[in-house]
Amino acid sequence: MKDRDSRVNSRIIMSDRRKIDRSEVDLVAYIFGDGGSQRCRVFNISEDGAGIELSTKLHMPATFKMMLERDRIIRDCRLVWSSDTRIGVVFKAD
């Protein structure tokens, strides 16, 4: 119960900082960089960024690329936060 409460509180804090609200989704995506890639799940997204769930806890680089399976658009990402198997990113402008 405590773990769930801390996740809810962190979502509230993060949503307060966002310029644009994110939509709750369940999308397959791939993150890649440095020659490797990993399948992941996007659980929320907006024009500016996304919340991503990884299959295992990983050390993530400060910047990497992400591609949603549905649209195949490659987005440049900057890591903003990480907690266990979840990370938050902002999309870098071109």
Q: What does the model show?
A:
The protein is built from one helix and six strands. The protein has 94 residues and is of the alpha+beta class. It has a six-stranded antiparallel beta barrel with strand order 1-2-3-6-5-4. The radius of gyration is 13 Å and the shape is globular. The termini are far apart.
SSE layout and pairing:
Elements: H1 2-17, E1 23-33, E2 36-45, E3 49-54, E4 63-68, E5 74-83, E6 86-91
Antiparallel strand pairs: 1-2, 1-4, 2-3, 3-6, 4-5, 5-6
Key structural traits:
single chain; 94 residues; alpha+beta; 1 helix; 17% helix; 52% strand; globular
Summarize the entry for a quick read:
With 94 residues, the protein is of the alpha+beta class.
The proportion of residues forming helix, as a percent range, comes to 10-25%
Tell me the Rg in angstroms: 13 Å
How many strand segments?
A: 6
- In round numbers, the mean pLDDT is 85
Order of helices and strands: HEEEEEE
Strand order of the largest sheet: 1-2-3-6-5-4
Largest sheet composition: 6 strands, antiparallel, barrel
Task: Enumerate the spans where pLDDT stays under 50 for 5 or more consecutive residues.
Answer: 6-15
State the shape: globular
